[in-house]
TrEMBL record, chain A:
The keyword Ubl conjugation does not apply. The keyword Transport does not apply. It comes from Pacificibacter marinus. GO terms for cellular component: outer membrane-bounded periplasmic space. It holds the Pfam family SBP_bac_1. It comes from the Bacteria. PANTHER family: PHOSPHOGLYCERATE TRANSPORT REGULATORY PROTEIN PGTC, THIAMINE-BINDING PERIPLASMIC PROTEIN-RELATED. InterPro entries: SBP (IPR006059). This is Bacterial extracellular solute-binding protein. Residues 1-21 form the signal peptide. Keywords: Signal.
From TrEMBL, chain B:
The lineage of its organism: Bacteria, Pseudomonadati, Pseudomonadota, Alphaproteobacteria, Rhodobacterales. Residues 247-457 form the Histidine kinase domain. GO terms for molecular function: phosphorelay sensor kinase activity. It comes from Pacificibacter marinus. Pfam families: 2CSK_N, HATPase_c, HisKA. It is an enzyme of class 2 (transferase). It comes from the Bacteria. The gene is qseC. This is histidine kinase. Its EC number is 2.7.13.3.
Length: 341, 457
C-alpha cells in the first residue's frame, strides 16, 4: 500500500514537474507578502504590459501570489487544451480561440458582473482591452513623404518605391500567430483590399513574424520600414522606440481586437481567480492609476466603442474550421509567399 | 318563522363559486395553452434559424479535384448569435467521415428521403437542439453525400419562454380578477331581485294579502305566481274561518236562549217541587253550556285574531263602564255593587273585539265568585302602564294554583258549584299577551281575588 502511495506521489511530482518544465516565453512570479496560495495565470501578453496591474492586485490581496506565464496564442490554446486544470486564469488576444474554449464549456460562469453585453460572452468570457491593429512605419523611411493613412495608401506607397521596401515589410505569419490569423481573417472579411495588399507585400518579399514585439523592434532599428497589423498598444509601451516609429491606425476600416480573459471551470481556486478576473475587467476607477496600465482598457463609454470591435460572437469559430482555415492559409500563402526572382 | 326556516347552502355563494371557479379554470387553461403554443413557436423559430445555418453551410460545399471543400460564409454561424450567448456546435461530414467541426455530435436520423432532421439532446451538460441536414454532391466521376450537424443550446429559448410565461401569467391573473369581479357583480344584481321581493313581502301589513304586482324576471315569475296563489288561498281561508266562527256562535247561542226561555216559562207553570228543582238544574246547565260555548268561541276568536290584530284606538274607561252597565242587572240580582275608580280616559291601541272579550270575562269571573252583598272594585289607570284592576270579596285563588289557573280548562279547587268552563282567565291572559302585556293574579290580604290586566305602554 505504502509503495502505491509513494509511486502516486512521485507521479504527481513528475507530472507537475512536466508542466513547470515547459519552455515559457516569459515566466514571472509576483510574490505576495502573506502568501497562502498562488494563481497561475496563462497569458499571451508580455509581462511588462501587465506588471503594474498585477502588482496592484497583489497589494490589494496580500495572500495571493500570481505566477504569470506567457506564451503565444496558439501555443496557449494547445497548452490549455492539454492541461486545463493547471491554470486559474487564461488571458489571450486571440478572441476566436478564447471564444472556442468558452463555447466548449471551459469558462466558469461568473454572474453579477456588470459588463457591457458586447464585451462579454455567456458570462464566462470577458473582454477588457480595446487594441486596434496598426500600420507601424519607420519615420526615416518616410522622411519628407506622405504617410499612408489607409490600406489603399499603403498599396500605392509600396508600388511607388518597390526597391525601397523590398524585404523590408513585415507582417504576422498567420500560420503561427493566432492573433495574426484573427486580424487577417477579419481584414479579409471586411474588404477585398486585404488580398491586394497581401499580393503587393508578397511581391516585395514580406518578412513574417510571430509577434508584435519583434516587429516593433525591427521597425525601430530599421530592419523593417513598414509593419502591417501590429498591435499599437505594444508601441505605446515603448516610449524610446516611439521616436523612430510612427503608429498609424488605418482610417478606411479599423480592426480592433479585444483582449479577453476567463476563469477555467477546472480551477481549484475559484474565488481567488474570480477576484483576479474582476480586478482585470473592472480596473479601479482611479484615473491616475490608468497611466500605469500600458494597455488601453475598455473605458466607461462603451456603446460607440462596441461598433468598431471584432464582435465577440460564436461566428468567430468560422475561420477556426479546419476546411476554412486550410483554404484561407492556402490563399494567404499564394499571395504572400512568391518565388523571388 | 325565520327560526324554523331550514338553510341549505346559498344561491349567491353557489353562483359566485361556479362563476369564479370557472374563471380560474379558464385562466389556468389559457396559461397552459398559450404557453404551449408559445413554446412551439419559439422552438420553430430556433429550428428555422438552425436550418438556415445548416443550409448555408451545405450550399458552400463543392467538389474540387475529387475532394470536398466547404468554404461556408461567416453568416452561417453569426446568425446563431443570441442575446443570451447560446453555445453552438457544428460538424461537417462527407458520407460518414468527419471533415471538420466538433467530434461526436449526435446525428438525428433522417426520416425517409427528408433532407433535414431535428433532435434535442443533452450535450456537454446542456440541452442542445441539433439539426442534421444533407445534400448530394455530384462531381465529374463522383457522387457523394455531404451532411452537416448544427447545434445550439437553448438558453435564449428558455429566456424567451420564461418571459412569455410571465406575461401570460400576468394576463391570466388579470383575466381571473376581472372575471371574479364580473361574477361578483352579476351575482349581486341577480340576488338583488330576490332580496327586493323578500323585503317587499316582509314589509307588508298583517292584513295585506294582495298579490305581488311588481314586474319580475322570467325565472322568478313562477315563484311569485305561486306566492300570489298561496296568499289568495290564505285570504279566502281566513275569511271563511271568520265567517264560520261568527256563524257557529250565532247557531249555538240562539237555540240555547230559546231552550232557556222555554225552561223559564215552564218553571213558572210547574208547582211540584221536584219538577221545579229539575227545571232549575236544566236552566243552570243551559246557562253553563251557553257560557262555555261563548267562551270557547271567544277563545277561538282570540287564537285566530292574535296573529293579526286590528289595532284601533280604544278608551279603556269607556269600555269598562259599558260592561259595568251591561252587567248591572246581573249584579243587582246578587246585591253586588260595582265600585269604579277611574276618571280621565285611558287611550290604548288594541283590537276592540279582543279587549271586549278580555274585560267581559274578567268582570264575569268576579261576579261569579263574589258572594251576595259584596263589592267589586274596578280601577282603570294609565300609570305606569295602562291597566285594569278588578278585585272582589270572594274566596280568592287557591294560593298553590296561582301559576296554573290561566291554563286552559283549569279551574280553582274552590270553584265547585260555580258555573264555569275554566277558559275566562285564559282568554284574558291570551289577549294581554297578544297586546304585549300580561295578566297578574293575586289574593288581597283581607280576602278576595285581585286580577290585574296590564297592557304595554
Amino acid at each position: 500500500m505504502r509503495y502505491f502511495y509513494l509511486i502516486g506521489m512521485m507521479l504527481c511530482f513528475v507530472m507537475s514537474g512536466a508542466v513547470f518544465a515547459k519552455d515559457w516565453e516569459e515566466q514571472h512570479l509576483f510574490q505576495a507578502p502573506n502568501h497562502t496560495l498562488t494563481l497561475r495565470v496563462l497569458s499571451s501578453t508580455d509581462t511588462s504590459l501587465f506588471a503594474p496591474i498585477i502588482d496592484q492586485f497583489v497589494q490589494q490581496n496580500p495572500n495571493i501570489s500570481v505566477e504569470y506565464l506567457v506564451t503565444g496564442t496558439v501555443d496557449l490554446y494547445d497548452t490549455f487544451r492539454q492541461n486545463a486544470s493547471d491554470f486559474d486564469v487564461v488571458i489571450s488576444s486571440a478572441m476566436d480561440l478564447q471564444l472556442k474554449l468558452t463555447n466548449d464549456g471551459h469558462a466558469l460562469k461568473i454572474s453579477g458582473v456588470s459588463h457591457p453585453d458586447w464585451a462579454q460572452w455567456g458570462q464566462g468570457l470577458f473582454a477588457f482591452t480595446a487594441e486596434p491593429a496598426a500600420i507601424v512605419i519607420n519615420r526615416a523611411a518616410f522622411a519628407g513623404r506622405r504617410k499612408p493613412q489607409t490600406r489603399q495608401d499603403l498599396i500605392l506607397a509600396l508600388r511607388a518605391r518597390p526597391e525601397v521596401f523590398r524585404g523590408k515589410i513585415g507582417t504576422y505569419d498567420v500560420r503561427a500567430s493566432g492573433l495574426g490569423y484573427l486580424f487577417a481573417t477579419q481584414d479579409a472579411r471586411a474588404s477585398e483590399t486585404y488580398w491586394r495588399l497581401m499580393e503587393v507585400m508578397g511581391s516585395l518579399d514580406a518578412q513574417l513574424y510571430c509577434c508584435s514585439g519583434e516587429m516593433l523592434d525591427d521597425v525601430a532599428n530599421g530592419t523593417l520600414a513598414i509593419a502591417y497589423n501590429v498591435l499599437g498598444s505594444y508601441a505605446h509601451a515603448r516610449p524610446d522606440a516611439l521616436k523612430k516609429i510612427e503608429v498609424i491606425f488605418p482610417s478606411d476600416f479599423p480592426t480592433t481586437m479585444m483582449r479577453t480573459v476567463f476563469v477555467p471551470k477546472e480551477t481549484s481556486q475559484r474565488s481567488a481567480a474570480v477576484s483576479f478576473l474582476k480586478h482585470l475587467i473592472l480596473p479601479s476607477t482611479d484615473v491616475s492609476d490608468l497611466g500605469l496600465f500600458r494597455v488601453p482598457f475598455l473605458t466607461s463609454e462603451p456603446n460607440d466603442m462596441g461598433q468598431s470591435m471584432i464582435a465577440l460572437e460564436p461566428a468567430l469559430l468560422t475561420y477556426l474550421d479546419v476546411l476554412k482555415r486550410r483554404k484561407f492559409i492556402q490563399a494567404w500563402e499564394d499571395a504572400i509567399i512568391q518565388p523571388s526572382f | 318563522m325565520t327560526d324554523t326556516t331550514r338553510i341549505s347552502g346559498s344561491l349567491r355563494n353557489r353562483l359566485a363559486t361556479t362563476l369564479i371557479g370557472g374563471a380560474a379554470v379558464l385562466a389556468v387553461l389559457l396559461f397552459v395553452v398559450v404557453r404551449g403554443y408559445a413554446a412551439q413557436i419559439a422552438q420553430q423559430g430556433q429550428d428555422s434559424i438552425l436550418a438556415a445555418s445548416a443550409s448555408s453551410i451545405l450550399d458552400a460545399a463543392i467538389i474540387r479535384d475529387g475532394s470536398v471543400e466547404v468554404d461556408f460564409p461567416y453568416s452561417a454561424l453569426s446568425i446563431l448569435s443570441t442575446p443570451s450567448d447560446d453555445r453552438i456546435f457544428y460538424a461537417i461530414y462527407r458520407d460518414d467521415t468527419l471533415l471538420s467541426g466538433y467530434e461526436s455530435l449526435p446525428r438525428a436520423p433522417f426520416d425517409g428521403s427528408a433532407t433535414t432532421a431535428f433532435t434535442t439532446t443533452d450535450f456537454q451538460d446542456d440541452a442542445v437542439r441539433f439539426i442534421s441536414a444533407r445534400r448530394i454532391l455530384v462531381g465529374e466521376n463522383l457522387r457523394t453525400h455531404v451532411s452537416v450537424v448544427v447545434g445550439q443550446t437553448q438558453d435564449g429559448l428558455t429566456l424567451t419562454l420564461n418571459r412569455i410565461s410571465r406575461n401570460v401569467a400576468v394576463f391570466g391573473i388579470g383575466f381571473f380578477i376581472l372575471a371574479a369581479l364580473l361574477s361578483y357583480w352579476a351575482t349581486s344584481i341577480t340576488i338583488e331581485r330576490l332580496t327586493r321581493l323578500t323585503i317587499s313581502v316582509t314589509r307588508r301589513g298583517p292584513q295585506d294579502l294582495s298579490p305581488v304586482i311588481a314586474p319580475m324576471p322570467v325565472e322568478m315569475a313562477p315563484l311569485v305566481a305561486s306566492l300570489n296563489t298561496l296568499m289568495d288561498r290564505l285570504d279566502q281561508s281566513l275569511n271563511r274561518s271568520e265567517e264560520f266562527i261568527a256563524e257557529a256562535a250565532h247557531r249555538v247561542r240562539t237555540p240555547l236562549a230559546t231552550v232557556r226561555s222555554y225552561a223559564e216559562a215552564t218553571l213558572q207553570r210547574v208547582s211540584k217541587e221536584e219538577n221545579r228543582q229539575a227545571l232549575r238544574s236544566m236552566v243552570r246547565a243551559i246557562d253553563e253550556s251557553s257560557r262555555a260555548a261563548g267562551q270557547l268561541l271567544d277563545h277561538a276568536m282570540i287564537t285566530f285574531r292574535a296573529d293579526h290584530l286590528e289595532y284601533q284606538d280604544i278608551d279603556l274607561v269607556e269600555l269598562v263602564t259599558e260592561f259595568v252597565r251591561s252587567f248591572s242587572p246581573l249584579a243587582e240580582m246578587k246585591d253586588i255593587e260595582f265600585s269604579l275608580h277611574m276618571s280621565p280616559p285611558v287611550h290604548i291601541a288594541g283590537d276592540p273585539i279582543l279587549m271586549q272579550n278580555a274585560v267581559r270575562n274578567v268582570i264575569d269571573n268576579a261576579l261569579k265568585y263574589s258572594p251576595c252583598e259584596s263589592i267589586i272594585s274596578i280601577t282603570v289607570s294609565a300609570h305606569p302602564n295602562p291597566r285594569v284592576i278588578i278585585t272582589d270579596q270572594g274566596p280568592g285563588f287557591p294560593p298553590e294554583q296561582l301559576n296554573t289557573l290561566t291554563e286552559r280548562f283549569t279551574r280553582g279547587d274552590n270553584a265547585e258549584g260555580t258555573v264555569g268552563s275554566g277558559l275566562g282567565l285564559t282568554i284574558a291572559q291570551d289577549v294581554a299577551l297578544a297586546h304585549e302585556g300580561h295578566l297578574e293574579l293575586s289574593n288581597l290580604p283581607k280576602g278576595g281575588a285581585c286580577v290585574t290586566f296590564i297592557l304595554s305602554a
